[in-house]
Structures are given as structure tokens and as C-alpha cells.
């Protein structure tokens, strides 16, 4: 029986086999057996190993997944994992099949591309941050020098104003003394 929050869909098709998933309340549950069959692996053995795994075992769940057999849709209980663990689980699989090796290579490449991008991006961000910090420091130093020069200009202007006041004061004093301006 399908509840309001369940949705059955095909996850992907691999080697002509449909890999199924079930969406329940926003979690995608991927059926393990169809993946293992597509990868030509002993599904019963791998599912047992997965259930006994200290980490993955806690995330396995039996879900009623709808499958189509001879045009008739049936609900089958299947061991599933949440999608977020499927890709790592595939890398966890051990086997010699060419299909598994190709799929693992794809997973490893995806992991590399993701983390290499993260590491590369982190390095670039750190370099950019360092460059910006250096520029800020240099500009602050230049502004400090300009501020010091600006203060010096302000002090010189104050001195000039004081001297001009003194000169004006002196001029007024000399102007009051008649004998300085008169010739004998």
C-alpha cells in the first residue's frame, strides 16, 4: 500500500536492469538487490554482509518497493539503503565483475572531482584571503603615512596661523608708534 508520502520510481537503468528507489518523507531508499544483480554479484551474500556491517547495518531497512514483473506491478520487500550511503556502499563492494569495476571507477572519479574541487577551492580561497589581507595592511600603512603627513600639514598650518597672527599683531603695534614711521 502506497502512503501519501511514498513515491516509487526507477533510480537508473544499468545493463538493462532497472535500479529502483522509494521516496519516503524526503528520504530516497535504494533497493540493493537490483544493483547487485546488475553488477553480477551474489546479492544474498552482499546484503548479509551489508546488514552485518557496523556502520551500514544500522542504515539498512526493509522497504516495500514496487516492481513490474510481466507487466504486473507488485510490492516486494527489499533491503534498501538511504541514497546518501549508496555511493560509498558501492565502493565497499568486493568482486571481480567488470561492471562493478567500471561503476567503482565512476564513484571514485566523482569523489575525487568533488573533494579535489573542495581542496583546490580551499587553497585558492586561502591564497586570495592572504592577498587581500596583505593589500589591506599595505593600504593601512599608506593611509597611516598620509595621515601622519596630513597631521604635519595641519600642525604647520597652525604654526603659520600663529605666526600670521603674531605678524598682524606686530604690524598693529608698529602702526601705533608714530616715531617708527616718521623720518627725521
Describe this structure as you would to a colleague.
The termini are far apart. The chain has a domain at 6-95. The protein has 5 helices and 5 strands, in the order βββααββααα. It has helices spanning 32-38, 43-52, 83-92, 98-176, 178-181, and strands at residues 6-14, 17-24, 27-31, 61-69, 72-82. Helix 1 packs across helix 2 and helix 3 crosses helix 4. The protein is an alpha+beta fold and 184 residues long. Strand 2 (17-24) and strand 3 (27-31) form a beta hairpin. It has a 5-stranded antiparallel sheet.
Task: Give a short overview.
The protein is of the alpha+beta class and 184 residues long. The chain contains five helices and five strands. Strands 1-2-3-5-4 form a five-stranded antiparallel beta sheet.
| SS field, number of helical segments | 5
How would you describe the shape?
A: rod-shaped
Let me know the number of strands.
Answer: 5
Strand content: 15-25%
Amino acid at each position: 500500500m502506497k502512503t501519501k508520502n511514498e513515491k516509487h520510481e526507477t533510480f537508473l537503468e544499468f545493463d538493462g536492469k532497472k535500479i529502483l528507489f522509494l521516496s519516503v518523507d524526503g528520504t530516497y531508499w535504494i533497493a540493493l538487490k537490483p544493483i547487485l544483480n546488475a553488477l553480477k554479484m551474489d546479492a544474498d551474500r552482499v546484503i548479509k554482509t551489508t546488514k552485518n556491517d557496523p556502520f551500514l547495518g544500522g542504515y539498512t531497512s526493509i522497504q516495500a518497493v514496487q516492481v513490474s514483473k510481466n507487466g504486473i506491478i507488485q510490492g516486494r520487500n527489499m533491503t534498501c539503503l538511504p541514497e546518501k550511503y549508496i555511493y560509498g556502499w558501492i565502493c565497499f563492494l568486493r568482486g571481480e565483475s567488470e561492471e562493478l569495476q567500471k561503476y567503482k571507477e565512476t564513484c571514485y572519479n566523482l569523489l575525487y572531482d568533488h573533494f579535489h574541487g573542495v581542496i583546490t577551492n580551499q587553497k585558492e580561497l586561502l591564497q586570495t584571503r592572504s592577498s587581500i589581507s596583505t593589500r589591506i595592511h599595505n593600504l593601512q600603512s599608506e593611509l597611516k603615512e598620509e595621515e601622519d603627513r596630513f597631521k604635519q600639514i595641519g600642525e604647520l598650518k597652525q604654526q603659520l596661523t600663529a605666526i600670521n597672527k603674531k605678524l598682524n599683531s606686530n604690524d598693529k603695534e608698529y602702526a601705533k608708534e608714530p616715531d617708527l614711521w616718521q623720518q627725521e
